[in-house]
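User: Please predict the structure of the protein below. I'd like the answer in structure-token form so I can feed it into my own downstream comparison script.

Assistant: Understood. Taking the following sequence of 213 residues as input:
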Amino acid sequence: MVRLDNPYSFNRPRMFQYLAIAALFLVAYIIKKYASFHFVYQFVLPIMLILLLSYIFDRTMLSKKMFIGGEFPELGHIYFFSVPAVLSAFLISVPRLLHIPPHYFMHFSSQGNMQGGELFVLMVVVAVPAAEIVFRGYFQFLYSHLFGKKAGLAASVITYILFFLLLTNNVFVISYAAVMGVLFSYISFREGSILPSVIAHEIILLAMFIFKF
């Protein structure tokens, strides 16, 4: 039975839709092991393939209701602008004070081997919206039907962290991803929409490009 406090209860998922979670990890493992792509492609391609596959079997995947929830979120809520800004400042200043190299930027750019324009388009235009739709929208939607919305939030965070663990063993990158995963999932959970989490994710990502952390 779907819990009444589940914000995604407008559309009960079918069991085969849960295969998308396993498929993400399988595709990521194959790409990581057998392809010599830059890290950003290893991150983006599995997400885009699962996004496409899920959409083929479930056309609500990219629906207005899936994206913004039951009603349009209040974009005047300052916290999902201010909190990512504060987190960005922390991620920028603390590594510099501790003389830690800019792991997150360097990892996604494969140690600076990608052209800046290509990396920017892939990350800002493709990766952020796709990752939020898949992890904070679709997967959290699936988990919420199984466990309720609070446990669904936790499960989506864990899935996000495990995805990074599959792709890299860099402890800084995994730590950054864990902190951001908690923030984005909480914002999506609180607002009942992934649009605010997309905005928050874009703020942190733009800070990454400007200040390099």
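That's the full token string. Residues 1-9 have pLDDT under 50 and may be disordered.
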